[in-house]
Write a structure and sequence with these properties.
The protein has 3 helices and no strands. It is mostly helical and 73 residues long. Helix 1 packs antiparallel against helix 2. It starts with a helix and ends in a 9-residue tail after the last helix.
Length: 73
């Protein structure tokens, strides 16, 4: 789902920026980057759950604390 939203938002952002709609184009670009970050975080979380020696080296602690599972403390 995040991949589809990322691609769609990125395409819409490029189209709007080409047509000189700067505000909506930049907003869609920010949303595309946010969905890309979420997708990257999910991939890292799956790799971490498959490996037993997870040390969360892919994300700083100040970012990881906002995206923890409800079961984690």
């Amino acid at each position: 789902m995040c991949l589809i939203l990322t691609v769609i938002m990125f395409i819409l952002a490029i189209q709007n920026l080409i047509q000189h709609y700067w505000m909506i184009g930049s907003l869609q670009l920010i949303l595309a980057l946010f969905f890309l970050f979420i997708l990257w975080r999910n991939i890292q979380a799956v790799q971490c759950s498959k490996n037993t020696n997870c040390n969360n080296c892919s994300f700083p602690d100040w970012i990881s604390k906002y995206f923890k599972n409800k079961n984690q403390k």
